[in-house]
């Protein structure tokens, strides 16, 4: 799988986390909000790793 694909998947996962968080806010569900925030943080980490790997392979 290419690095661009990994970045796109991480962005999609971050968006999914944003939706979960906003649903949690709308439903006043703390567990869902926390789950969404966690998913966003994990996706940001994955995206950063993919970007770093892509940058290293471009050199």
UniProtKB/TrEMBL annotation:
Region described as Disordered: spans on this chain: 35-59
Biased composition (Basic and acidic residues): 35-49
Start-end of Low complexity biased regions: 50-59
Source organism superkingdom: Bacteria
Protein name: CsbD family protein
